[in-house]
Specification:
Structural class: mainly alpha
CATH topology of the largest domain: D-Maltodextrin-Binding Protein, domain 2
CATH superfamily of the largest domain: Periplasmic binding protein-like II
Largest sheet: 3 strands, antiparallel
Radius of gyration: 22 Å
Strand content: 5-15%
Number of domains: 2
CATH class of the largest domain: Alpha Beta
CATH architecture of the largest domain: 3-Layer(aba) Sandwich
Shape: globular
Length: about 425
């Protein structure tokens, strides 16, 4: 909605009608599909990372190739445009780039490794073998009271992003060696007590961010690190770094590094429905949101305050604004604004470190060439069998068998070895 209001300022003769549909349980996709071929079909759609590729691979979206010169001028990160491209045709652009990183506790790093310096910690945690070795150090020096990570779910995007082969090759389900490595790694972390066995997005996962995590007996526990993308800092870690009652906080005790492997997590792409009756205007909206230097700068640096938006449209809700810090997809904009975050609130949160600069270092290494429309369903199908395997209720062969059965039910035409 924020960008829609900003668009109206530069296009005063346009009224952007914004419809919010929940993303839960596939409601968004269901309602969008129901509009196809009707007068209710939207002109522009927002597509989340979990399902963007399925739409890009379909014939629902318009070709946005005529915007490529703007993307080239803005030096959009290649992985951002790769996600929106299918068989050489680009159908979606994103205003964000969402490289992932590792956020770690400075005080705990000093206690267990003798340093909290990001460059030195990157050397200590610079590949998965080092990360596993560091997890043992954390466990040993904390007497088991600090976990390296809160949840095994933190590893999924990391390993999936570094496969050599996609899930589907020549209509055949393919298990890349990195998937086996992921299973092996999460098993090591579970069996050795390196992870807190929390579930992502649940109370225990958040509690580790503000030092209120306890075990079943009520004993206090700490979390050394979290794998989070760009948006994880302003929208997940920072808001949860202080406990609800204000008695415990970790603000200022965090730092960020690239970590053991480059990866990408999340993001929102915008596309135009091919049946749009306002094709030129819809494309201009996409260009403004994702490829306009002034808009991206305003979006990233906190210009779009509630007061700013209300001057354009007085009906804007009180809580509507865009906080500074979102990492944008244009390298041109990133280079120009990175230094402006040196003394920002996010920098203070990270003990003086410029997070924007850290993400700028990580972004060029990210690849999205393996994204496929079937990814989300295939990966979700592995969650329950993997958890049962980690709990010890089934063995490894049973885990793979249950997963393949679930994938077969979802994709009956897929060849499953």
């Amino acid at each position: 909605m924020t960008m829609a209001v900003a668009f109206e300022k530069s296009h005063p003769d346009v009224d952007v009608v914004y419809t919010m549909i929940p993303m839960t349980n596939g409601e968004y996709q269901t309602k969008l599909m129901a509009t196809l071929g009707t007068a209710d079909v939207p002109d522009v759609v927002a597509l989340e990372a979990a399902f963007v590729k399925s739409y890009v691979e379909s014939d629902f979206l318009a070709d946005l190739g005529d915007l490529l010169p703007y993307a080239k001028e803005m030096e959009v990160y290649p992985f951002v445009t790769d996600v929106g491209t299918h068989e050489g045709v680009i159908k979606a652009y994103a205003y964000q780039a969402t490289p992932g990183a590792v956020f770690y506790r400075r005080s705990l790093a000093k206690e267990y490794f003798g340093t909290d310096d990001p460059a030195e910690m990157q050397e200590i945690l610079g590949d998965m073998d080092k990360f596993v070795a560091a997890a043992e150090v954390v466990k040993e020096k904390s007497d088991g009271n600090t976990y390296m990570v809160a949840s095994n779910g933190d590893f999924m995007n990391l390993f999936y992003a570094n496969r050599e082969q996609p899930w589907v090759v020549d209509d055949t389900l393919t298990v890349d060696p990195m998937v086996n490595k992921m299973v092996e790694t999460v098993k090591i972390f579970r069996d050795n007590g390196y992870e807190a066995r929390a579930t992502q997005w649940q109370e225990g996962w958040f509690a580790g961010m503000n030092d209120t995590l306890t075990d079943a007996a009520g004993n206090p526990k700490k979390i050394f690190s979290y794998f989070l993308p760009t948006w994880g800092l302003p929208y997940v870690l920072a808001p949860n770094a202080t406990s609800a009652d204000g008695t415990s906080t970790t603000v200022g005790d965090w730092a960020v590094i690239t970590g053991p492997l480059p990866y990408q997590w999340g993001g929102t792409w915008l596309g135009v429905m091919k049946d749009s009756k306002k094709m030129d205007l819809a494309k201009e909206f996409i260009r403004f949101c994702t490829l306009d230097e002034e808009n991206l700068t305003n979006w990233a640096t906190g210009v779009y305050t509630n007061e700013y938006l209300k001057e354009i449209d007085p009906s804007v809700p009180e809580g509507q604004y865009q906080a500074a810090g979102d990492f944008v997809g244009s390298q041109v904009v990133v280079r120009k604004i990175t230094s402006s975050f040196d003394d920002s609130e996010m920098s203070k949160f990270l003990g003086g470190q410029n997070s924007y600069g850290g993400f700028a270092e990580a972004a060029p290494s990210v690849s999205a060439r393996l994204f496929q429309g079937s990814d989300d369903a295939i990966q979700r199908a592995l969650n329950d069998p993997l958890n049962s395997y980690l709990e010890g209720t089934i063995d490894l062969d049973e885990m793979w068998s249950l997963w393949k059965d679930a994938v077969r039910n979802e994709f009956p035409d897929l060849i499953i070895p």
